[in-house]
Specification:
Elements (H helix, E strand, L loop, with lengths): L1 H28 L1 H5 L11 H20 L3 H26 L9 H12 L1 H19 L6 H15 L2 H7 L6 H23 L20 H15 L1 H32 L22
Helix pairs in contact: 1-7, 3-6, 3-7, 4-6, 5-6, 5-7, 5-9, 5-11, 6-7, 7-9, 9-11
Length: about 280
């Protein structure tokens, strides 16, 4: 079982990263596709396929989990509750806009990834963006890119778990500082990655926009100029917002999530034995 779960995690990481990266960088690899599309039609052709692939990936993981022990079905139920809560947070953010690119949804995506692992974190991010887009009317060609990037946020947050456990940081201020750093990074990274969804199809000043035939070094230089001029201030508000939310609410939220983790226990009985010790959640989604 442990080996099968490890291979499932590897498969999810490989497919999500490979498919997502290809989706973002294909204009640079196939420059002919850029010339045939305008900003209004960019990604329109592959968007339906990406929706199907992403949702199939998420559904496949969920179906796998509910086929296992009762503890996993409880994880799936908890995931649904957390996605609903985070989707409502995004609705509130749109109804009462915060400054710049600030959004409260990344706070919970990061913390659930840390507590429950990479698979849970990826599903939390991807499904939160999908459900909240349905609620807020934010469905469009950009949504698959947002789902990938939010999923990567939760997935990468899980990388903090070995550090936290190895250095015994759980419940300490150092853990919150570490996660504040993760929030600051992904506040900027989310915007920097999402810019690539549309940037190759834009036209404007030569020193800020890409054109077919431009080399890698010049492409990076142009993107850097474009990012500093158009996105940095917007993304900084998201980054600062993540830091503040984790700094203020991180400790009690982590405590609550870990309490749920400990209580997701499967008690079982076997013939000739009244009760065994509870199996704590050993395999994370």
């Amino acid at each position: 079982m442990e080996m099968r779960n490890r291979w499932l995690s590897i498969a999810i990481y490989t497919v999500s990263i490979g498919l997502g990266v290809l989706t973002f960088v294909y204009p640079f690899i196939l420059p002919g596709a850029v010339g045939a599309q305008s900003m209004s039609t960019a990604h329109a052709s592959e968007t339906p396929l990406l929706y199907v692939l992403l949702l199939t990936l998420c559904l496949g993981v969920l179906l796998y989990e509910v086929q296992g022990e009762a503890v996993k079905t409880r994880q799936v139920a908890l995931l649904g509750v957390l996605v609903a809560i985070d989707s409502v947070l995004r609705f509130v953010d749109i109804a009462i806009p915060g400054p710049g690119g600030f959004s409260p949804i990344f706070f919970l995506i990061i913390l659930t990834g840390v507590v429950f692992g990479g698979r849970f974190g990826f599903l939390m991010g991807a499904l939160t963006l999908f459900v909240s887009a349905l609620i807020t009317g934010g469905v469009g060609p950009w949504l698959p890119g947002q789902m990938f990037t939010a999923g990567w946020t939760g997935m990468c947050a899980a990388l903090c778990r070995p550090v936290i456990e190895g250095l015994h940081l759980s419940g300490k201020k150092t853990e919150i500082w570490l996660l504040m750093g993760v929030g600051a990074f992904w506040g900027l990274a989310f915007g920097a990655i999402m810019n690539l969804w549309a940037w190759p199809f834009m036209v404007g000043p030569v020193d800020q926009y890409w054109a077919p035939g431009v080399g890698l070094q010049d492409t990076l230089r142009r993107y850097g100029v474009y990012y500093l001029a158009t996105s940095l201030a917007w993304d900084l508000s998201r980054s600062v917002g993540n830091v503040l939310l984790i700094g203020i609410f991180g400790a009690p939220t982590l405590k609550a999530l870990r309490r749920f983790e400990r209580r997701l226990v499967f008690w079982y009985e076997t013939p000739g034995q009244d009760e065994k010790q509870p199996e704590l959640l050993g395999e994370k989604i």
